[in-house]
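[audit] Reproducing an earlier prediction to check determinism. Same input, same settings, fresh worker. If the tokens differ from the archived copy the diff job will pick it up downstream; this log only records the rerun itself.
[audit] input (578 residues):
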Amino acid sequence: MVRVRDEKPAATAGFSTPSGAVRAAHLDRVAVWVLRAGVVALPLAVWPPGYDIFVLPKLALLRLLVLTLAGLRVAAWAVVGRPAWRRTPLDLPLALFVASAALSAALAVNVGVAVFGTYYRYEGLLTIACYALLFWLAVQAIDRREARTLVRCLLLGGYVVALLAAVQWAIGGAAVGAGAGESESTFAGSLRAASTMGNANALGTFLALLLPLAARELLAARGAGERVLATNVAACLGLALVLTYSRAAWAGAALGVAIVAAGPAARAARRRPAAAAGVALAAAAGLGLAAATRAGPGWFGTALARAATLSDATGGSGATRLHIWHDSLPLIVARPWTGWGPDTFGLVFPRFATGDWTPGYSIDKAHNDLLQVAATQGLLGVAAQLWLLGAIVATFWRGRRRPGAVAFLAALVAYEVTLQTGFSWLPASAPASLLMATAIVAWRPDPAPAPAPAPGVRRAGVIAGLGAAAALLAAGLALATLPVAADTRFRSALAAQARDQHAVALRDLAAARRLAPEESVYAAETGDVLLDVDRTGAPGRAADPVAARAAYEDAVRLGDVRPEVRERLAVADRMAGH
């Protein structure tokens, strides 16, 4: 009785009651549901009214998700009266990787591009920091059981993306025509599925990440219902991956699935060696017969033709990559320690290119993740990234006997293998950050219970903490909506320009530039409208060369390296008499 009476004054003086812990638990539960929704929604996010329909909405959702989770974390700290977080072996190398990006951005050839990234890529410092924060905040919110739930949420989102990819291929394939060449969107007259990613290689990277997880779900399924569901998911993901015709993604997914299946296959071979050998021979014979006779649906034959190009690394896009890698080396040597700044590769590469390797297109990525990091963040960034990868492997090794541990490693291996002929890009990299968080939680022991509320938590501290949380939520909403609103006005401006409504186009472009002043594309388009260019790029009668020149100069200053922008700047300069 005395103890009860002693506790009551503290309860009335502040918030150090069990209700503080209850409130924190409720906030943590909300964070879990926010994560679940974000995991499903991130790969599906699109915004048809905008010009960048696919990538910018995912960037907006990523920012909103990160700042919402941060706000909930700060609010939970406020009600218990003390900050408390779970540490992981990845914290230090991940922090150093972000720090190297920040240093590179401060010393970048173009600070604006290094911070915000280029249009349609957005892989600047802010996005890199978002990846790291998403990982860290997810680790704070989940335990091992929730990690598996998040994996299934990720598979759910991927399943819908894969279904849309198959529908897209079936409907859009007829419109491709009979072109036999290889491009970003076609191969051998067949459409390369891109689904909600907007790019076939990005979709391939995302699906390669998921297939080892789907394979594990299939192998771990219990009962006919679970097996049918898991088979359906794995088959749909696999078919969509094939329809991307992304060879790197195929290789990554194959390696990941092989890692998952190796243990069960070895155990099956030891128990029934004759049956295992028969199944393997039958599968190999069936695939060989199908390849020889070209039997099967059209997509299968196209996939075989695509796979055959793996034997020739010096042809097609493989040759292009070899040239880019070769020319990237002197670019890296020119700034070996801090690099040129995140996402600035496209600004610098033309100085070092020894040929026009992609006629009509600008090269803005090294198409190898280690080379890309070396070019943009220097050897400091590469060292941090290698440390991060090593910490991931070491953490797996310590927790390798935990359920599902191998599947998490296999998924991350598939992702990394795919990146070595591609690059980190938000449609796949944001889900990969979430998967990395679930893997670390699954590999490590269960976290300690949350701390009890601190004694003497005052109302003022709680109010201040909740105010900070509200500010983070408001910032997340602003950072999510402003760039999408700007891009929507940009698309409206393009439509108005096509109707020769120049005044309306300039009004919408001005609004877009106010909402997203960092976007060089909006400034360049303003210059086109002011110069009254036609489809050939020639100025029209209503040209205002002085104003157009200023807009083009803004575009160049903001990092637009497209040759046509500089050409039109020169035209406006001549017309203005400079």
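[audit] rerun output stored. Observation attached for the diff report: The chain has three domains: 1-84+450-483, 120-324+363-373+392-443, 484-575.
[audit] end
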